[in-house]
Design goal:
The complex is a heterodimer of chains A (about 475) and B (about 575). By secondary structure, chain A is an alpha+beta fold. In chain A, the strands form 5 sheets. In chain A, strands 10-19-18-17-13-16 form a 6-stranded mixed β-sheet. In chain A, a hairpin with a 4-residue loop joins strand 5 and strand 6. The longest helix of chain A is centred in the middle third of the chain and has 16 residues. Chain A is elongated. In chain A, about 45% of the residues are buried. Chain B is of the alpha/beta class and about 575 residues long. In chain B, the strands form 6 sheets. In chain B, strands 3, 4, 5, 6, 7, 8, 19 and 20 form an 8-stranded mixed β-sheet that branches. In chain B, strands 10-17-11-12-13 form a 5-stranded parallel β-sheet. In chain B, strand 21 and strand 22 form a beta hairpin. In chain B, helix 4 runs parallel beside helix 8, helix 6 packs antiparallel against helix 8 and helix 6 crosses helix 10. Chain B is globular. The chains are: A alpha+beta (about 475), B alpha/beta (about 575).
Chain lengths: ~475, ~575
């Protein structure tokens, strides 16, 4: 993951770099004198060579809260040429680290804040947390404070207590300690799982491990993230602070919530997959008739559609495949139909696992259970991240057709419109009224081709138009 | 080398790998091929004697007829051998080869397998595994391959075949070593050797009758075994030492490695390349405590942080229980300072790499009034064994891991050669500061001489200045061609005299690059001399070339110390 673009640049123009580099013999670039008499200073990414445009933070020699003496080495920066120790130009305290180890920042951007006195550390930290978590690309940044600080030297003291709790949240991003080693609640997670969770900003506590003895392993973390990919799954993994839709303040700039950033990132990520779309119109009279007949037994339309789709997928395994690395693809061994559901403040995709094998009545019960759990935010990761094919239905809102974005990690998604009566001409030259439903499948063209989708849709049409098999 | 595994209940060296030499097990079997292929009479008589901390270059030229005939005839008839060496590891082997060259009638006693730790359970098989891990790393590094324009389908490995490679390599080197001794006429006596009195050794398999031989001089070279701290139950399956790990009987999903010295680091390289995740447990506050701090920091950034490795520092593993009945391996950690319980880990396997303990039990040292110190045999700078009263014991020497001076295979060999030099009439003291050490991770780490903190301390005590020069692999053409620019070479020297105090390298082929520096230290070559030596372009050795050239000497001393000879 590239982090270079993530550094927040709000503070860039306000002050000259407060750092100089130290070379072996002590030569350093001349700098303009420091102009601002602020007590909290920014530490900038220095230019260590004439060609350097960005630098990577190799390691922080000092930690937040450490006292710094002028000339002391604070951070090691890797440039395009070499690694160099960077010294502080001032006495003070390293109040807040903005760019964590291993991440890059553009030359001149703020990488940390320096407080002159110990008392100002908290203030500086509040400034840090009030700027959107700049570097980690993680969803765990504390971005609740919608304020954008224009000017460093004039802090708003009242902001400090409000943000203090957030910064403790945010510290999880930069902390090098292992969650499992913190006393009290133990999370057993493998080293790589911990690393991934930290990098991706996933909270290990919310993850159910699939490794030996319930250990959280890397794929559990990936799965938890994939759930977010599908759209807002983080609402289920963390007790996310959901913004109340009431009372939107017009003209305000609202930073993304954790979930929104995750959705945003994953939607952008989906652009890396070459997708295409194929539409089809089903006649649903027979399906509607069947639905009426067995509705009383608790069967839902969603379950019927999922079942029909699953049965069609049995015959077209390529449509149920997924390509992750761009070099190979996997024929998934299970047919798990994920169905998008709007929940308070977001969207989640409970998964009907093995929908081809389970009878329609059990499937309907399972669906009800999943929806209840989703509303209560109690879905387990495997209940929302194991989908191999996704259904998204906006028919209930009267939408007749739409287009869905393919969730990364899956091969295809089907957008389902409303079932509506339509006048159609039949082959025998007559005009009749039929109930029709339009679907539109988005698929990854690296593995699924037009003919594959066409054949799949044809099979699905047969099943829907002669749905008696669904109840078997 | 006697190296069966014994439970050791000695009070033990620090848990971690504070001193690199106490935990290392690196070797170079540099002499076995040499000894094997050329009959002694055709070999060069120019022995590269290593001068003892002086700057003079000595070339000792021996006349074979004199030394050999003289020694052999002067040996009293009552001695069976001129020299008996107890232990056929790299140290014993090196000593034996040199002894034969010097015309001594030599026997070597081995109670276990020829080749000792290095060949059978140490550097040799581990290099085989590291060769595999290096290639796996290359093949898995998509980014790197892409940058080179290569396309490789998914890389995989066959565990048994990898294990066989390591085992076959060990057998092959063992065969070479045994043959080289036989070809030179060294008698191989089988059994555990015990000193029964001055110049007298008995040997024999346990349970069978003992044979006694007499020798004018005796060298103890019994080596070491993995050190396992108390509270750790080694079952050889899920809680293992390097002895077991080298057999690669399984590749756990998650392995904890106790100790982050050379052995731990090398195994972390192997295991992560084969797909394991690793947790280091280190008693010191920092990983890799034995290395130069700057090199350690860089190594951590490259070898630890980006890999599937996490770590706990400043903790002791007080209790490690093997996996049983479906339960994982459990490791109880306490804070190294406060001794408070800190955490419990549940992992699939644990590798104990907390260093090595000398293997000196049963040597009969009590018969000659020698008291070991934590198992180590006390010796002076000429490897002469010191008895309990502080007196030198005539005709008895101890080399290698058993004396604990610098626990490296090639140190043992060099010490053995030094002893043989003394036996044949040339006083010789080995300069341990000129002995290089290497850790064969990817990339490698190597070093010779003092670390920066050691050098600073010495400089302060003796009242001189030190300077540091550094070069990066990023500036080296060959390294960039290989797309392996990650690396650093560091020179610690005296700006007043140009003396080289230490060189540390982290980067591609560091282990092969160090010898230019170690030879310079051994021969007393100074910076102002070596900076005029020419290095082929483009090669990695230019990293050192640049290093020497970037060293700044005080102005009065910029002239070469020795005049180059025109030819």
């Amino acid at each position: 993951m590239s982090h270079s673009h993530l550094l927040h640049t709000t503070f860039v123009p306000t002050a000259p770099p407060s750092l100089r580099r130290r070379l072996g013999v002590g030569a350093h670039l001349p700098r303009k004198p420091h102009l601002i008499q602020s007590k909290i200073r920014e530490i900038f990414m220095p230019a260590l060579s004439s060609t350097m445009t960005e630098g990577k933070i190799v390691s922080w020699v000092k930690s937040e809260g450490d006292k710094l003496a002028k000339g002391e080495s604070v951070v090691v920066v890797e440039s395009d040429k070499a690694d160099m120790d960077v010294e502080s130009f001032y006495d003070g305290y390293l109040a807040a680290i903005i760019v964590d180890e291993g991440l890059s920042a553009a030359v001149g951007s703020t990488i940390a804040l320096l407080a002159e006195t110990e008392e100002e550390i908290a203030l500086a930290q509040s400034k840090k947390s009030s700027s959107p978590a700049p570097a980690s690309a993680s969803a765990a940044g504390g971005n609740d404070a919608p304020m954008v600080l224009e000017e460093m030297p004039s802090p708003v003291p009242a902001a400090a207590p409000a943000v203090a709790s957030v910064s403790s949240n945010a510290s999880a991003v930069g902390s090098a300690v292992h969650p499992a080693s913190e006393g009290g609640k133990r999370v057993v997670a493998s080293p790589y799982a911990k690393k991934l969770a930290k990098d991706l900003g996933v909270d290990l506590k919310g993850i159910v491990g699939s490794g030996p003895n319930g250990r959280v392993v890397a794929k559990d973390v990936e799965a938890a993230l994939a759930a977010v990919n599908v759209g807002g799954g983080s609402a289920a993994t963390t007790a996310a602070e959901v913004a109340k839709p009431s009372g939107v303040e017009l003209g305000s700039v609202v930073p993304f919530t954790t979930m929104q950033s995750a959705v945003s990132r994953n939607m952008v990520e989906s652009l890396a997959v070459p997708t295409f779309r194929v539409g089809y119109t089903f006649t649903t009279d027979a399906l509607d008739a069947l639905y009426k007949k067995i509705k009383s037994k608790g069967v839902t339309m969603t379950a019927l559609l999922a079942k029909a789709t699953a049965l069609a997928l049995v015959q077209h395994p390529v449509v149920n495949s997924s390509c992750r690395d761009g070099k190979s693809f996997t024929y998934n061994s299970h047919i798990n139909v994920a169905v998008a559901v709007a929940i308070d403040g977001g969207l989640i995709t409970p998964v009907l696992q093995d929908a081809d094998k389970i009878d329609i009545y059990s499937l309907s019960r399972k669906w009800k259970e999943l929806v209840d759990k989703a509303r209560a935010k109690q879905l387990q990761p495997q209940e929302y991240n194991s989908g191999t094919f996704t259904l998204s239905n906006l028919g209930m809102f009267g939408v007749d057709r739409f287009d869905a974005i393919l969730p990364p990690g899956t091969g295809a998604i089907m957008a389902v419109g409303a079932s509506e009566p339509a006048l159609v001409g039949t082959k025998d030259g007559r005009i009749g009224l039929k109930t029709q439903m339009q679907v539109n499948v988005t698929a990854d063209h690296r593995v699924i081709y037009g003919a594959d989708l066409a054949a799949f849709l044809q099979t699905l049409a047969k099943i829907i138009e002669d749905p008696n098999d669904l109840t078997l | 080398m006697h190296a069966s595994i014994l439970p050791l209940s000695t009070s033990n060296p620090p848990y971690s790998t504070l001193r690199p030499h106490s935990s290392s097990r690196l070797c170079g079997l540099q002499r076995e091929a040499f000894g094997f292929c050329s009959p002694p009479q055709f070999r060069s008589r120019n022995l590269r004697a290593v001068p003892a901390k002086t700057h003079s270059r000595r070339l000792s030229v021996f006349s074979t007829s004199n030394t050999a005939a003289g020694n052999r005839s002067s040996a009293p008839a009552s001695f069976d051998y001129d020299l008996v060496i107890i232990g056929a590891g790299v140290g014993g082997h090196g000593a034996a080869l040199h002894a034969v060259e010097k015309g001594l009638k030599t026997a070597i006693i081995e109670g276990d397998v020829m080749g000792g730790t290095c060949v059978n359970r140490g550097c040799v098989p581990s290099k085989a595994l590291l060769a595999v891990s290096g290639r796996m790393r290359e093949l898995q590094d998509e980014h790197h391959l892409k940058a080179l324009g290569l396309q490789v389908a998914a890389a995989g490995y066959d565990r048994q075949a990898v294990a066989d490679h390591a085992n076959n390599l060990a057998s092959r080197i063992r065969g070479n070593l045994t043959n080289s001794l036989k070809a030179l006429g060294v008698d191989i006596l089988t059994g555990f050797g015990t000193i029964v009195g001055p110049q007298k050794v008995k040997y024999g398999k346990i349970g069978s009758s003992d044979n006694v031989v007499t020798a004018k001089d005796i060298i103890i070279a019994t080596g070491s075994v993995p050190f396992v701290p108390r509270g750790i139950e080694v079952d050889g399956k899920t809680v293992i030492t390097s002895d077991h790990a080298l057999k690669l009987e399984f590749v756990p999903d998650w392995i904890a490695i106790v100790g982050s010295g050379y052995i731990g680091l090398e195994f972390s390289d192997v295991y992560t390349a084969l797909g394991s995740e690793v947790t280091f447990i280190e008693a010191m506050d920092q990983l890799m405590p034995g290395f130069d701090p700057e090199i350690g920091k860089l190594a951590q950034r490259v070898l630890i942080n980006p890999r599937k490795i996490d770590y706990h520092t400043g903790v002791f593993a007080t209790k490690i229980t093997p996996a049983k009945d479906g339960k994982p391996v459990t490791i109880e950690l306490i804070d190294a300072k406060t001794k408070e319980p800190k955490d419990t880990l549940e992992v699939d396997a644990a590798l104990i790499a907390t260093g090595r303990a000398p293997f000196t039990k049963g040597l009969g040292l009590e018969n000659i009034n020698v008291e070991t110190q934590r198992g180590f045999v006390p010796v002076d700078e000429r490897m002469r064994v010191i008895d309990a009263d502080g007196n030198l014991i005539p005709h008895l020497y101890c080399i290698g891991d058993a004396n604990g001076k610098l626990m490296l295979a090639h140190t043992a060999s060099a010490q053995g050669i030094s002893v043989v030099e003394q036996l044949t009439g040339n006083d010789h003291v080995l300069n341990h500061l000129s002995i290089p050490a290497a850790c064969f991770t990817h990339p490698e780490i190597s070093m010779v001489g003092l670390t920066e903190p050691q050098a600073r301390e010495k400089a302060e005590n003796q009242g001189f200045e030190i300077s540091i020069a550094k070069t990066s692999f990023k500036a080296n053409t060959k390294a960039l061609a290989e797309n392996e620019g990650e690396g650093l070479a560091k020179l610690i020297y005296r700006p007043d005299t140009g003396e080289i105090l230490g060189v540390h390298i982290f980067g591609m082929h560091a282990a092969d690059l160090i010898h230019e520096a170690s030879n310079a230290i051994a021969l007393g070559t100074r910076v102002q001399d070596i900076k005029f030596a020419v290095h082929a372009h483009p090669t990695l050795s230019e990293v050192l070339d640049e290093l020497y050239k970037s060293a700044k000497l005080n102005s009065h001393n910029t002239k070469p110390a020795s005049e180059p000879v025109a030819v």
